[in-house]
Design a protein that fits this description.
eleven-stranded mixed beta sheet, 169 residues, 3 helices
């Protein structure tokens, strides 16, 4: 269980602004109804501003369940704000399990019925592109498309240890 981060899909211009998009796996726990805990590796979408100036982000993203149709999760990324400011050296993070349950109706209904087990052993594809602009600019720029596949796997002996697999093309 390490951190998986893709740095080649960032965007850099001659003024030093840069965004890097990646996925990190983070050890976590989920509470079981009986009060116990499930060790659950979180998949976290991470956007870093490695540039020298603040940028205003407007992220756009889709999540697709294996063999299914893409579900836009842009609203879950941006909330009510049309653009989010990100300072130099700043980082934004979004939990992909939370995005699945808020932005993908099919997965959300399965998780509601079956709990976290509804996401086990399915491949999910995340596609992210970010429109951004520097403070004094009015015309937005766009990062290259970032794409990753991920899935959660339970240990065969018990469902209280869930690991994460991430593939970057």
């Amino acid at each position: 269980m390490g951190s998986h981060q893709e740095n080649n899909n960032g965007s850099r211009d001659d003024r030093g602004s840069a965004l890097e998009i990646g996925i990190e796996s983070i050890p976590s726990k989920m509470r079981k109804p009986d009060g116990g805990e499930i060790f659950f590796t979180r998949a976290v979408l991470v956007v870093n501003n490695t540039g020298l100036e603040p940028v205003f982000l407007t992220p756009r993203a889709d999540l697709t369940q294996e063999g299914g149709i893409a579900h836009e999760v842009t609203g879950a990324l941006s909330g009510d704000l049309p653009a989010q400011s990100l300072a130099p050296g700043g980082k934004r993070q979004w939990d992909l399990f939370d995005l699945l349950t808020t932005g993908h109706p099919g997965v959300a209904s399965k998780v509601h019925l079956f709990g976290y087990k509804a996401v086990l052993n399915w491949w999910f594809v995340l596609s992210v592109r970010i429109d951004y602009r520097l403070e004094e600019e009015s015309v937005p720029r766009r990062t290259p498309l970032f794409r990753a596949r991920f899935r959660w796997n339970a240990k065969p002996a018990a469902l209280d240890q869930v690991d994460l697999s991430i593939e970057l093309p």
